[in-house]
Every structure is written in structure tokens, then in C-alpha cells.
Amino acid sequence: MKKEGASAKTKFFKPQTRKSFITYAMVIVAFVVMQILSSGGYISSMLTGLLVPLCVYSILAVSLNLTVGILGELSLGQAGFMCVGAYTSAIFSIVTSETIENVWIRFPLAILIGGIIAAVFGILIGIPVLRLKGDYLAIVTLAFGEIIKNVFAALYLGYDSKGVHVSLKSLSNLNLEPDGKLILNGPQGISGTPNDSTFIIGAVMLLITLIIAYNFVYSRTGRAVMAIRDNVIAAESVGLNITKYKLVTFALTAFLAGCAGALYSHNFYTLQASKFDYNLSILILVFVVLGGIGSIRGSVIAAIVLVLLPEMLRSINSYRMLIYSIVLIVMMIITSNEKTKTFISANTAKFKALFKREKVKEAE
Amino acid sequence: MALLEVKNLGISFGGLRAVDEFSITIEKGQLYGLIGPNGAGKTTIFNMLTGVYKPTDGTIVLDGKNITGKNTIEINRAGIARTFQNIRLFKDMTVLDNVKVALHNHYKYSTFTGVFRLPRYFKLEKAMDAKALELLKVFELDDKASLLASGLPYGDQRKLEIARALATQPKLLLLDEPAAGMNPNETAELMDTIRFVRDNFDMTVLLIEHDMSLVSGICEKLSVLNFGQLLCEGKTAEVLKNPEVITAYLGE
After folding, report:
1. In angstroms, what separates the C-alpha of B111 from chain A's closest C-alpha?
2. Beta-strand pair B80-82/B172-176
3. Closest CB to B100 among A223, A229, A231
4. With CB atoms 3.0 to 4.6 Å apart as the test, which of A266, A300, B97, B176 could cross-link to B85 if both were Cys?
5. Is there a common fold for B1-70+176-252 and B80-169?
């Protein structure tokens, strides 16, 4: 009966709740520290310029982890969904920049639109693609990501008094009136996006993403998704609709990637579709794998470390990529090797025990 | 009226006739055994009953409802739950979550409610926790609720699979070799559990088993399958004395 006290405590504060709250606290602390440092002028302008992209990459990593870690399917189309979100939200902002002047209304709307349209793309692509498994799914999502990128790179879009003009051929095919406004200029991309993204909005979005991700995992839907990951046949036998939950996860991943895309596009005045190539998708997958598949907090940490590292090492330019790759390999060994994992957990346990004993001694 | 009525069930894989003209009638509350040599088609019959395979001929009627050819999910909702010959747990999830997954279709809230933690989320999660713990208690697994399913000893994994199947609130429970790999003590304990489940959950049980002590100990009726065909059926004691069954399966 001595366990009663402990169980009452865990009931009040479940381990999963504690895990998520620690992550939220870490993000908030990091935000406050960076905010203080940047307002005091202690950090370089290069790092200041990285603050919003850091949020973007963290959101992308967390959202991809839902598909890779929780659903257990390999998707390489993350950059494609981000591209959809970036472009649609930027178009929305440019078109409405004169009608909706308040940034605090326009930008959240733009983010939401970017996310929703990316989610629609996610569902449309997911319906045929999620029938595939493993490598095949990875290949097809990679192809879809590239298709999305290339379509946007070839798209000309403008509007004038006669209405909206769209062309996939060339600028002259658009037949814009002299008073018309060009929004998308093919491979040169989109320009004139209002710079609405700030570090505060980025940090808040990252926090919302984390809340959504954690709450999703620890809900009825998240349980169903993890059950499908662990054993499809058993999941079917207890009456779970496999296709539905795969689609829900895929759509949520696409939605969050679209939101991140919106944050990204509003950070730059001009944006080309060529940025959203498969290298970006693979980079995000690297964040997820090195942060620990299924670990949401790990995704954020890996994204931040691996975005900052190359920038920090700029001073030793010629060795930069060498150190970066060594760090990648070391992290890979630590996070994926069963032996190193047990070694680390055993030693942290020892360390904790040591710490506890000292505390007891102090109390005595 | 019988709970499960299967008539002339048959399935072919290419040129192979795996099960032919199989019929079985199970009354409500019965403990029914399905035995036979390896490869006789016992698990294939389970797979047809649960919709994993679509039978090529025959009909399956559960509680007056024709469920022939329905998919796994529809059949589970109609009221058949099963366990597997090779244990299929959700191994990276906790014991408690394994059972909560199976409560999925009885405690419903939307993804939106879950993500934004509306009051309904807390209410239903609490109810699910209580229900799942109550089920785990029956199998003496409640103190292991927070462990990962893969960390359980073998016997407990078998029990958890039964608990999970029961959580879908079925009318008919199919157990595929529940005593496989258990020692005599564990088997005896399992027999008590199966009886307890039948009595306390108003359950009807159909089980496949090779362990004759379990079969003769708890099954009221038996069907014997050989080369995909019904060899004989009837009361357990009589079936086990049948000379045909002895030559085909039990050995002299």
C-alpha cells in the first residue's frame, strides 16, 4: 500500500503530460533568452536572421515526425507541402495587402490558408499514395514533392481589370493589361510578399505545433495511429479504419508543413520554388531521424542544432562540412545503436542515483 | 437461435482447396473447440470468420445477421473478436493503451476534440482508463498497466491479447492457440481465466488448441478438422473417443 502516494501523484500529473510540458517550457525559455539577447544586441545579425528559419525547420521536423515516427511511414514530400503553403499564403497576402491592412488579422489568415490548402494537397496525394508501403511510399512522395515544386516554378499568375490570368508557358502568354499586377513570375518566383514573419510569431507557432503534436499523439486518434504502426493486422482486428487514420496523420503533417511554409515565405521579400527541392525534404528527415524517430522534443532539438551548427562553424570555413558530417555520424550512432543507447541510459541512471544519494546526505 | 451458424464454408487458393464444406453451429455461452492436425485449415477458418479472407462459398450468420464477405472492421463491429496464433500486440505501446485502442469504437470523440482537449476529451479518457483498468484487473495485469507491452512475460502477453479482444465488446471470442508455449501451470491458470470470461462477460468462445488437457478440460463441444474437411463433431468426451479422430489426429 506504500505505492498509493506515488500513484495519486501520477494520476494528477501523467508522465506524458510532464514530458510535453517540459518541451513547452524549453521552447519558452529558449525564446525568452534569445529575445533578451537580441534586444540587448548580444547576438550577430546572422543569428538574428536565423531565428525565424529555426522555428520553420523545427515545425517541419515535428510535423514530419508525426508521419515518420507515429504513423511509421517514410514520406519525402515534406518540401512539396511546404511549397504549397508558402506560395498560397504569399499570394493571399499580396492580393489582400491593400484590403486587409491589419497584419494581426492578415498574417494568421495567410498561415491558416497555407496550411489548409497544403492539407488538401496532402489528402489528394495521400488517397492513392498511402496504399503503398515503405520504400515505395518514400519514392512516390518524393516524386510528388518534385512535381509540386516544378509546377509552381512554371506557373505565371497575375490579375488586372479583366480578372485573373494564369499561364504555364511564359510571361507574354499571360496577356496582362498594362494596369495589371504580376504575382507569380515563373522560375523567378514570387516577389513583394509582406515581411510579416517575426520571431515572436514563429515561436508561438512552434509552441502551437508542439501542443497539437503532443495532444494528437496522446488522444484516441494518436493511439489508433500508433496501433496501426505497431501491427496493422491486429489494428484491423480491433476495428480500426486503417485508411482513415493514415490519411488524418498525413493531412495533419501536410497542414503543419503548409503553416511552416507560410511562415517561411513571409520572412523573405522574394521566393523561388527551386528552394523546395528534395534536398530540403531529406534535410528535414535527417532532423527527425537524428532527433529520434517518434520523439517530438528530439526533432526540435535536432533541427535547432543542425541548422545552427553550419552557421556557427563559418569562421573555420574549410572544415565546416567536415565537422558537420562528423556530428551527424556521431548523433546517428548514439541515437540508433542499441548498445550505446543502453550505455547512455545506464549511465544517466547512475548519475541520477548519485545525485539523489547526495541529496539524502545533505538532508541528513 | 444459435449465435454463430456457418454453412458449407469453403475457400480455394488457386487450385488448392484449403477448406471445404465446413459447417458449425455454436450456441450462446458455449465453449467450443476446433482441433485437428497442423495444416488442416483451422486458422484459415478463423481468418474467414473475421474477414481476413473472403470465403469462396458458404455463409456465416452471426446472431441472425449475415456477415459473409464483410471486411474485418465490419465483422469486429458486428461482434467477433480474436487473438492470434503468433501474438500480435501493439508492442511499443503501454499495456493500458493496448486495451484503450480496442475501446476505440465504443468511446468516440473526434480528432479535433483530442487535439484541442475539449471537456469531452477528459471525460471520455477518464472513462476509458477506468474501463481498461477494470478489464486488466480480470487478467491481473492492472499493476503492469504502464509497462510497454513488449516488456511483458509471454504468459501475460497472451492474457493481454485476450483482454484487448474483450475490450471491443464482442459476442463471440475466437482464441487461436491461447495455450501455445505455456507450461502446465500457466495452462491451468488460463483455463480458469477462459471460464471466468465466459461466465462473467456472457461470452461465447471458439478456440483452436493443440493442448489436449485444455481442450478436454474446458471445451463442451468439439469439431475436428482434417485436410480442410470436417471429420466429426459433438460432445468433447465422445469426439475424443472416436476412432477416426484418434487415427487422424490423436494417435493410438
Report:
1. 6
2. parallel
3. A223
4. B176
5. yes
Pick the CATH number of B80-169 from 2.30.180.10, 3.40.309.10, 3.40.50.720, 3.40.50.300: 3.40.50.300
B164 in A contact zone (CB under 8 Å): yes
**What's the whole-model pTM score?**
0.89
Contact A220 B117 (CB under 8 A): no
Residue of A7, A21, A220 to mutate for B, most B C-beta atoms under 10 A: A220
- How do the pLDDT tens digits run along chain B, 252 residues long? 789 999 999 999 988 899 999 999 999 999 999 999 888 899 999 999 999 999 999 999 999 999 998 999 999 999 999 999 999 999 999 999 999 999 999 999 999 999 999 999 999 999 999 999 999 998 999 999 999 999 999 889 999 999 999 999 999 999 999 998 888 988 998 999 999 999 988 899 999 999 999 999 999 999 999 998 999 899 999 998 888 888 888 776
Interface contact flag, B104 A238, Cβ < 8 Å: yes
B168 touches chain A (CB under 8 A): yes
Q: Where are the alpha helices (DSSP H) in chain B?
A: 42-49, 72-78, 95-102, 111-115, 119-138, 154-167, 184-200, 212-218, 236-241, 243-245
SS3 B231: strand
The distance of B88 to chain A (nearest Cα, Å) reads: 6
Q: Is the CB of residue B51 less than 8 Å from the CB of residue B74? A: yes
CB B4 within 8 A of CB B24: yes
ipTM of the complex: 0.91
- The alpha carbon torsion through A195, A201, A202, A207 (nearest 10 deg) reads -160
Whether residues A307 and A325 fall in one domain: no
Superfamily name and number for B1-70+176-252: P-loop containing nucleotide triphosphate hydrolases (3.40.50.300)
